[in-house]
Each structure stands twice: as structure tokens, then as C-alpha cells.
Design brief:
- The structure holds two protein chains of two kinds.
- Chain A is built from nine helices and no strands.
- By secondary structure, chain A is mostly helical.
- Chain A folds into two domains: 112 residues, Rna Polymerase Sigma Factor, Chain: A, CATH 1.10.1740; 62 residues, Winged helix-like DNA-binding domain superfamily/Winged helix DNA-binding domain (Arc Repressor Mutant, subunit A), CATH 1.10.10.10.
- Chain A starts with 8 loop residues before the first helix and ends with a helix.
- The relative contact order of chain A is 0.10.
- Chain B folds into three domains: 53 residues, no CATH class; 93 residues; 105 residues, Sandwich (Immunoglobulin-like), CATH 2.60.40.
- In chain B, strands 5-4-7-8-1-2-3-6 form an eight-stranded antiparallel sheet.
- The radius of gyration of chain B is 35 Å and the shape is flat.
- The chains are: A mainly alpha, B alpha+beta.
- The interface between A and B is large, with 60 and 46 residues.
Chain lengths: 183, 265
């Protein structure tokens, strides 16, 4: 991660609480590509994804006062807001939640290889490291984090008892953290 | 529960990935206040999956950012108008019910409402002017962009042959660049490194054909105008060299003034 950070997370939050547009621009540049990917994975339609991305950032701007840093990191809050907005949009448009991910988890990430823009961020290097993440660990993180599945839905989709979702998720994230730290 | 148990239970992972039920969410938020080590663990989990999310990024169309900023710039003016009306109505509600006072109040209300109307009207006008200005700025930026794109097309064309013109005795630091199109013979000049012209004088381009200078056209170098733009000059099929001299305005049939830059093909 050789990205040159202009603001720390605390600085960024403080500035955004005062509706600082420069900080908001930085926030967008830093997080929009990741959020865009998440929306796209859920809606599978580039222009719809970008519409939702636009609405999400307007919401982030207008509702920034609701963000409470004692409850978690900024990105987690932004992601939850974006994911909920995406789910609501899909529902209002009568879409069904996509369940493609469990079929072939690789196809989803491969799909993006050509469209990904690696700017200052060494995503290629990180992806390589993530290759050693076990498929069932990757699926469970993706289903929850990227696709907004509930515990119930994950249990059903993976054919595991509800109580196992928690422990599986923990193992998967421990593994993920290990991989990212090894760098 | 002890902090260690909490960490081991996996509830923090559910919380960070958005899987936790409302009950679990409340629970975790309580722990976060109680145990710094739990908060720290959560921060690390979140940082890990944030990195994971960033690993799979897709750059959105640049227009998305533009649209967002247009909207937040507009919304901040609308908001101000609303805040103004809110405080004024709050005062009106608190007037006393006696009819004497009611008359006075209704007059006050009328005056207040006129004041609000005037100020809203002014605000609206201001917003409209701001919007108009933004639109104008956008239009001029678009225009500029089009010009730059035109320049780029010339520079990047596969037929474009660049020729550097170097400064001579009259102005050793001066320079200019010619782009000669091999397919059409069109000649373009980028004069941005030529010094400012004295009043009444203008640069003229010469193409050296068969050892003789042939008029290549006048170069525009006004500060406000096209100095920094690539300009189209006269077309030549065969040229040995290009040169620029300083001539009296609107030029001469043969070079009379000092030569500033020159370059061979």
C-alpha cells in the first residue's frame, strides 16, 4: 500500500463533519472505486451501479453527522450505507438478489480484471496474496461483505448450520488478515 | 463476558461484515465502550477487510464525481433558504392569543412574511446567478477542452512529423515547434515559447523551399488570444526548413526583420 495519504482517518472525519468539500473529494477518490465494485457485483449493470454510487455519496455527504467513529471505521459505515441503498434500489426495481457468487466465485473476480484501474494502490500485489485464501473462506466474506447476505441466507446457500456461520467467518477473516499482513 | 471471550466468539467479525443482528449490534457497541482491546480488535478486522475491498476496485466514470459535486454545491444554497424560513415561523407561533395582540401579530406576521419573501427572492436570484455562472464556467471549460483535444489530435496524429525550431542570435532562448503532416502537407505551429512581440510587430513563418523563403503565414501571439494554441499555417508539400522572423504587422512578401528561430526538416 504505497498510497500517499493526505489525511488520517480522524482528520478526514473532522473535516467532513464541517462539510469540507476538499475532504469529500479525497474521500471519493479513495473509496469510490471499492464501493463501485461492490455495487456492481450486486446489480451487474454498470450504469445502474454508477447511479447508485452517485446517490450513495450524496447520502454520505448529507448524513455525515450520523457517523459515529466509536462504532467503527468510516469505510464500514459507508459500505453499510451503500449496500443498504443498493438492496433497496434492487427491491424497488423488482430485482432478485443475485446468487451467482456461490456457483463459481472465481468468475466474479476475473470479470473485473480487465476493467480494474490500478492507480497508486497495489491491488495486483494484494490480489496475488489473496489467491491463497481458501475458496470457501473467500465465498463467505464476499457473500456478507460484498453482497449483503444475511446469516440465514449464507447458511442456506452454503448448506451449513446457522451457528457455524459465525465461526467460519471468524476463521476466514483471521486468514485474510494473516495474508494481508505477510506482505 | 470478558474481552478475550468476546474476541474469540466471532461476533466482531459479524459486526464488521454487516452480518450481525440488531441485538448483536447493540451488544458489540456496548463492548466497544467497555473494552479498549475489543475496540482495537474490531479496528484491525475492519482495516483488513477494507483492504480486501480496495483490492477489488473498479474506477467509476469520472462524470459520477462531477455530478455529485454539482449536486452538493447546489444543495448547500437551497438549505440556507430553508433555514431562514424555519426560524421566522417559530417566532410567529409564540404570539399571544388576545385579539389586540392578534392584530399586532398579524401585522407583524405580514411584515415578517414580506421580509421572508424579499429575502427568499434575493436568495433565489443569487442561486440562479450562481447557477448561471457555473453553467458559463462549464461551457468555457468545455470549449477549452475541445481546443486542447484538437491540439492533441495534431500532436498525436501518426502522420505528424515534429520539427523543432531553435532560437537564433536575436533570441537564443526562443523556440517553436512545427508539426508537418506527411499525408496532407498541412503545417501547424506551436508558438508558445516565442517572446512577446513589440507593438506593431508580428511573427511570420517562412518555409525554405529550394533554398528560398516562401511565406508560411502570420503567427498570432496576442496574450489574450491564441498565443498558446497550436495554429494552422499554409500548406507545403516539400520543405527543407522552417524559420520565423519578426516583421511589421500583417507581414511581408520576403523576410526583412530579424530571424528568431529556425529548424531543418
Amino acid at each position: 500500500m504505497d498510497e500517499i495519504k493526505k489525511y488520517t482517518e480522524d482528520e478526514l472525519v473532522a473535516l467532513l463533519q464541517h462539510q469540507n468539500k476538499q475532504a469529500f473529494s479525497y474521500l471519493y477518490d479513495n473509496y469510490a472505486p471499492a464501493l463501485n465494485n461492490i455495487i456492481f457485483r450486486m446489480v451487474e449493470d454498470i450504469s445502474l451501479a454508477e447511479d447508485i454510487l452517485q446517490e450513495a455519496f450524496i447520502k454520505i455527504w448529507n448524513n455525515f453527522a450520523n457517523y459515529d467513529s466509536s462504532k467503527g471505521r468510516l469505510f464500514t459505515w459507508m459500505l453499510n450505507l451503500t449496500r443498504n441503498l443498493t438492496i433497496d434500489t434492487l427491491r424497488s426495481k423488482g430485482y432478485k438478489k443475485q446468487s451467482k457468487i456461490s456457483g463459481d466465485e472465481n468468475s466474479v473476480s476475473n470479470l473485473h480484471d480487465s476493467t480494474i484501474n490500478i492507480n497508486k494502490f497495489d491491488s495486483m500485489g494484494l490480489r496475488k496474496q489473496l489467491e491463497s485464501l481458501k475458496p470457501d473462506q473467500k465465498i463467505i466474506i464476499d457473500m456478507a461483505y460484498f453482497n449483503g447476505y444475511t446469516q440465514d441466507e449464507i447458511a442456506k446457500e452454503l448448506g451449513i448450520p446457522l451457528g457455524t456461520v459465525k465461526t467460519r467467518m471468524r476463521t476466514a477473516i483471521i486468514e485474510l488478515r494473516k495474508l494481508l499482513q505477510d506482505k | 463476558m470478558e474481552s478475550k471471550e468476546i474476541i474469540l466468539s466471532g461476533i466482531l467479525e459479524l459486526y464488521a461484515t454487516g452480518l450481525a443482528s440488531q441485538e448483536e449490534v447493540n451488544e458489540v457497541q456496548l463492548y466497544l465502550q467497555q473494552y479498549p482491546e475489543v475496540a482495537n480488535e474490531l479496528a484491525q478486522i475492519e482495516a483488513g477487510i477494507e483492504l480486501y475491498a480496495k483490492t477489488f476496485s473498479v474506477q467509476p466514470n469520472p462524470l459520477v464525481k462531477e455530478k455529485i459535486f454539482l449536486r452538493i454545491n447546489k444543495e448547500s444554497t437551497v438549505e440556507k433558504v430553508f433555514k431562514l424560513t424555519d426560524t421566522s415561523t417559530a417566532k410567529i407561533i409564540s404570539t399571544r392569543p388576545y385579539w389586540k395582540f392578534a392584530t399586532a401579530a398579524s401585522v407583524a406576521l405580514l411584515l415578517g412574511s414580506i421580509a421572508i419573501n424579499i429575502s427568499m427572492f434575493n436568495q433565489r436570484n443569487k442561486t440562479a446567478t450562481n447557477l448561471e455562472q457555473t453553467a458559463k464556467e462549464l461551457a468555457s471549460l468545455k470549449e477549452e477542452n475541445k481546443l486542447i483535444e484538437g491540439d492533441l489530435q495534431i500532436v498525436q496524429s501518426k502522420y505528424s512529423k515534429p520539427v523543432s525550431l531553435h532560437g537564433l542570435d536575436a533570441a537564443p532562448d526562443a523556440a517553436a515547434k512545427i508539426f508537418w503532416m506527411e499525408n496532407t502537407g498541412e503545417v501547424y505551429i506551436d508558438p508558445s515559447d516565442l517572446p512577446e512581440t513589440p507593438k506593431g510587430m508580428q511573427y511570420q513563418l517562412w518555409a525554405i523551399v529550394d533554398g528560398k523563403p516562401v511565406d508560411g503565414g502570420m503567427i498570432l501571439t496576442s496574450k489574450k488570444g491564441d498565443k498558446y494554441r497550436i495554429q494552422k499555417m499554409k500548406t507545403f508539400g516539400k520543405v527543407e526548413a522552417f524559420a520565423v522572423t519578426l516583421e511589421t504587422q500583417s507581414g511581408n512578401t520576403a523576410p526583412k526583420g530579424p530571424m528568431f528561430v529556425m529548424g531543418k526538416m
